[in-house]
């Protein structure tokens, strides 16, 4: 394993993606279709806040070091009601057409099972694992609980109230703008710091305001197992909470609450920065482009999907088939990545291009990816200098068509 590359000594400019016709980003703009987001906040007048919830609000203000600028309407709901409310949010974040195409691309790469639906898997995961949510564009906060919450429900409430507090100070609706443009890597990094803040400060709340007995009892109300949800989906959905909390903890150790606030004002731009806090904010990724290679595939092939791919996505991908330490080392040194996929009927082909800090990092990733490719899988990996290209397809002929110059 190569040593970590040096961190840039000053902030690097974030380059703009290419706009010319035929670029991957031109295809991304054409494929990125989402329902419009609601922009009006929920009306006030929900009545007085129950004393137990008001107490959690005061405690969150204390651990967070900020005060609410306006009242937060909190709805204690059932599991069924929470899932119903989540459906509208998932409809926008995981639109059916975009994620039907993406599901084929991911299955072609091999990170989900053939025929699996990303949207259905996320819905199944959310219905069992999400116990509360806050929507910045509406100011809606709902959680599974009551006006007299249990210790576990109070921690969940503290998490969501941290979101509301952060939103009032740092305008978290900026996440929606990233999502609307399908800038998945930057969105994943931003969600990492947002969820990391809520995780970090809700744990501080629990340590400060729950008794030892209450803290020990939290495990008795733990979330249920995720069942048969695709492992790749589970780890992607869980990543912002785990890596994000570690990122926020590192910032807090480095510069206290002020450093956390700075990261919420200026989101990290890559999951690499979240995984490696020392790279925030100086190490910006390079833009990678995949030209339109559909002509090499033959008549009738058309763009299926385009997605920016960062260190977190690649690390989770590699971890599906190789040991975690190798996956982590191989994904480290990432400096930019994107895939572009085409389809013809039920057939699909994907070109994943990545760029790395150094040639040694590229070789390490390429070697790991070659060992990751399963027996009989139609795929090929090539490395040249700091760049690695991986080609995946439903049929070997498409891999051969795409592994030539281009």
Can you characterise this structure?
The protein has 406 residues and is α+β, with helices and mostly antiparallel strands. It is built from 16 helices and eight strands. The protein has helices spanning 24-31, 51-64, 79-93, 96-109, 118-129, 151-170, 174-180, 184-209, 212-217, 231-265, 271-275, 294-297, 311-319, 324-331, 359-372, 396-402; strands at residues 74-77, 132-135, 140-144, 302-308, 334-344, 347-356, 379-384, 387-393. The strands form two sheets. Strands 4-5-6-8-7 form a five-stranded antiparallel beta sheet, sandwiched between helices. α10 runs antiparallel to α13. The longest helix has 35 residues, at 231-265. Mean pLDDT is 92; it is low at 40-45.
What's a concise summary of this model?
The chain is 50% helix and 13% strand. The protein has 406 residues and is of the alpha+beta class.
Low-confidence stretches: 40-45
**Number of strand elements:** 8
Following the backbone from N to C, one meets helices and strands in this order, namely: HHEHHHEEHHHHHHHEHHEEHEEH
Beta strand %: 5-15%
Shape: globular
Mean pLDDT: 92
Report, as a whole number of angstroms, the end-to-end distance. Answer: 30 Å
